[in-house]
Specification:
The chain is α/β, with parallel strands linked by helices and about 550 residues long. Helices cover about 35% and strands about 20% of the residues.
């Protein structure tokens, strides 16, 4: 018997019991609305799952959820049940329940039953599952079974497309206007510039092996790989002494490790020359693997920031220089999935707990690195921030506040990741300086989340940092006459929507590719999409790209 599973089930059962003791009437009324079709279920359910779900919701409402909970608890905690042998017929035919079983017990598989159970729980705790929840403490999903259940619901069924209730964030983001940043400065002006591109998370595990990725980047290198700085977020270790891929122990966060062969693809094929390395998976395999990954990075000659082998290395700010323009590249993560850096080695990972509320984030590390960068004469500072909640399409209120705080620390641009779905962008106003661009989440880049609909679309951006000469006012007899000041601005902003293809081939292998979204939209049969994936494309275009991500989609020169 799995002790962790027993404890997790008991914790969830206690939460259900507490909820139903107070709100059973509300839950029954909600279930009736689902049964009658008044309240829509997730669009990603199969027809059979919809049929089963409607029957189950009606049956639970008729029998009574508290009565069912009392009778199901002993069954769920039996060893056979924990081992996967779920005797549905025994349960549904219990004399305590009148009538026939709501679903055919002899043909439903374990996975479908688990999905239906998660769905039912999501309607018992409707607001907690269907809306982002304001945070009041420390981010603790690594040890919280109820939070893990919410994670599973959002991965399978509903990547939340609403912001926190009453936050007004949907209106805030839809009102953003990025058009003045999209102005492309003609080369004939002779203004000095430096170009940057950025994409999302590199998490090459599961199906993402060298054998399955022969044409991984072919379709997007013309947009992504042609800038001076080509950047992405390395969300795993690269340590050949550890098991490659996703390693999952019961009750523990998944440990991620990418092979050197896949890492070499990032450099050789995508031309990535800067990796942000501070992520929630940085410490998955301990401090030795952090150092092993750093060794791989150093041998590759690529730049990186976010992890370090010493305090001196942490303080040695990464600066890229071209045409006299110096750009500092910083990287921070909000969490380490419950792992800790050794007390005497806090320099291993740049951890700033953006997601936490009580205590509030400590920005002293960011302030120190910003000062180091400015002391070295940089003209622009970019912070790559690993933050937010997975499978939610809007940042939380406190993460947005963190963005404002980081800009106040002296950062010029924030490029965010971690959510495994895309989130919108924002401009933060600054006195006597160009508004600061914040990208809250690019979404996945090289990653495998095949059951999350909204994870299949993400985006890449590129922009220029341009040296702009401003003439001082031409006042008669003024000592400033004819003098120009040099300032720096972010211009030429463009965004490319991409689609994550994980095509399963007849021989059991995969054809994994990152491709242009509008190419897939025009020819879905040419990319090996399933019928379900084809039906999802209009939603990804209309709701995700054109609506939620409208500040970027409206300035994209890559949209047809």
């Amino acid at each position: 018997m799995n002790a962790y599973l027993v404890d997790a089930l008991r914790e969830i059962m206690q939460a259900l019991q507490k909820r139903l003791e107070v709100h059973e009437g509300d839950v029954v009324a909600l279930f009736r609305r689902v049964e009658t079709g008044e309240l829509r279920m997730p669009e990603v359910l199969s027809f059979q799952e919809i049929e089963y779900a409607l029957a189950l919701f009606g049956w639970v409402a008729s029998v009574g959820p508290r009565k069912i909970l009392v009778n199901i608890q002993p069954l769920l905690l039996k060893p056979k049940t924990l081992n996967g042998d779920i005797a549905l017929g025994v349960f549904f035919n219990d004399p305590a329940f009148a009538g026939s079983p709501p679903i055919p017990c002899d043909c439903i598989d374990k996975r479908t039953l688990i999905r239906l159970t998660v769905l039912i729980v999501s309607y018992i705790f409707y607001d907690e599952f269907h809306y982002p929840q304001p945070e009041a403490g420390v981010y603790d999903i690594a040890v919280n079974p109820f939070q893990k259940l919410k994670w599973l619901y959002r991965y399978w069924f509903n990547q939340l497309e609403v912001a926190e209730k009453y936050s007004g964030l949907e209106a805030v983001f839809s009102a953003q206007n990025l058009h003045h940043l999209s102005i492309k400065v003609p080369e004939v002006t002779g203004l000095a510039s430096l170009s940057i591109s950025c994409a999302g998370d590199l998490l090459a595990v599961d199906a993402l092996t060298p054998e399955n990725t022969s044409h991984l980047f072919d379709d997007i290198v013309d947009f992504y790989s042609t800038t001076d700085i080509v950047s992405a977020n390395l969300e795993s270790t690269v340590d050949d002494s550890k098991e490659v891929g996703r390693t999952q122990s019961s009750g523990q966060p998944a440990q991620m490790n990418t092979s050197k062969k896949m890492f070499n693809k990032f450099i050789a094929e995508a031309k990535i020359n800067f990796f942000s390395t501070a992520t929630n998976h940085s410490m998955d395999w301990g401090d030795d693997s952090v150092v092993a990954t750093l060794d791989v990075l150093k041998k590759s000659k690529a730049l990186y920031a976010g992890t370090a082998a010493s305090k001196a290395e942490q303080d040695d700010i990464v600066i890229y220089e071209k045409n006299g323009i110096r750009v500092a590249l910083l990287s921070f993560t909000m969490d380490l999935n419950g792992y800790k850096t050794p007390i005497d080695k806090s320099y291993l990972v740049n951890e700033v707990r953006f997601n936490d509320v009580d205590p509030a984030p400590d920005y002293s590390l960011i302030k120190r690195q910003v000062k180091e960068a400015k002391d070295k004469g940089v003209n622009w500072i970019i912070a790559y921030c690993h933050w937010g909640w997975e499978f939610e399409m809007y940042p939380h209120v406190n993460v947005r506040q963190a963005a404002h705080d980081i800009i106040e620390c002296g950062v010029d641009t924030i490029l965010g990741n971690h959510a495994h779905v895309s989130q919108p962008s924002e401009l933060i106003s600054r006195a006597d300086k160009q508004d600061a661009l914040v990208v809250y989440s690019f979404g996945d880049f090289v990653s495998y989340h095949p059951e999350s609909r909204n994870s299949k679309i993400s985006y890449i951006i590129k922009f220029d940092i341009v040296e702009v000469k401003l003439a001082l006012p031409d006042v008669h007899d003024s000592e400033t006459k004819g003098i120009c000041l040099n300032t720096y601005e972010l211009l030429g902003l463009d965004a490319l929507p991409i689609y994550i293809v994980n095509e399963k081939l007849a021989d059991g292998r995969f054809n994994c590719r990152v491709v242009k979204f509008y190419d897939v939209l025009e020819n879905p049969d040419g990319y090996g999409l399933t019928e379900m994936e084809k039906t999802q494309l209009p939603h990804l275009r209309d709701k995700v790209w054109k609506d939620i991500l409208s500040p970027l989609s409206s300035i994209s020169r890559q949209t047809r």
